[in-house]
Amino acid sequence: MTGTSKRMAKAYGAFDRYALHTVEEAISQAKANAVAKFDETIDVAIRLGVNPKHADQMVRGAVVLPHGLGKTVRVLVFASGDKEKEALDAGADFVGGEDMVEKIKNGWTDFDACIAIPSMMAQVGKVGRILGPRGLMPNPKTGTVTMDVASTVRDAKAGKVQYRVEKAGIVHAPIGKASFDAAKLVDNFTALIADINKAKPSTSKGTYIRSVTVSSTMGPGVRIDPVLLKEKKE
Fold first, then answer.
1. How far apart are CA 76 and CA 78, in angstroms?
2. Which of 14, 38, 70, 171 is the Cys-Cys partner for 177 at CB 3.0 to 4.6 Å?
3. Distance separating alpha carbons of residues 72 and 226, to the nearest angstrom
């Protein structure tokens, strides 16, 4: 067994993975479980009481985390004319049109966020099958199809997290790095949960947030008591 595997085994055996915790306890435990030699990401998995097969129960959105994600976000913008310069001035890493479409068709996906002005969406659609599964397809509902290019680029650079409920009714999203202070991770988690609550479909009945698990990249999941989240919301 390698050193990393031994550290992983120790982390998995250090706590009751079925126990329910407060947000603060769960995040502290997830940080403690981050035993890899790199700065692991702290991720959240939220199971919602929705059926994504129905269009009126799709949950998606984007939120700027107060303390960012602790990483450099590479932003691609599909724009032309004045908007191309606006994107570059705001800090976009890559800007273009058909040239970027061709690069993506040839296998290039070295970016973390993708923004487009409306007039470019016909071209962007040509690589939708590549961008979509990676969660990179620009969409008006997440604010990434917009004429307000500058502020959208700045938000992406600051750590704006896009989320979308998956087929199983689960939302996965990062809230920062294991090296973050626990208080900052709690702030980021709270901002994410608040935004997901705002995105609740009117057709969703019964319990909306059914379970929440937080984990580091290589660590086991730590469960948060969803009842406590409801109490905090109220």
1. 7
2. 70
3. 32
Strands 75-78 and 113-116, bridge-based pairing: parallel
The predicted model scores a pTM of: 0.77
Q: What is the Cα–Cα distance from 42 to 178, expressed in whole angstroms? A: 6
pLDDT tens digits, one per residue of 172-189: 999 999 999 999 999 999
* Distance linking the first and last C-alpha atoms of the chain: 48
Sequence letter at residue 65:
L
Contact 120, 79 (CB under 8 A): yes
Distance of CA 217 to the CA centre of its chain: 14
Q: Fill in the amino acid letter for 10.
A: K
Task: Give the count of beta carbons closer than 10 Å to the beta carbon of residue 142.
Answer: 21
Q: Which residues of the chain have pLDDT under 70?
A: 1-15, 230-234
Place of tokens 């058909």: 98
**Cα separation of 73 and 132, whole Å?**
18
DSSP state string for 93-119: SEEESHHHHHHHHTT----SEEEE-GG
Q: Return the structure tokens found at 118.
A: 């409306």
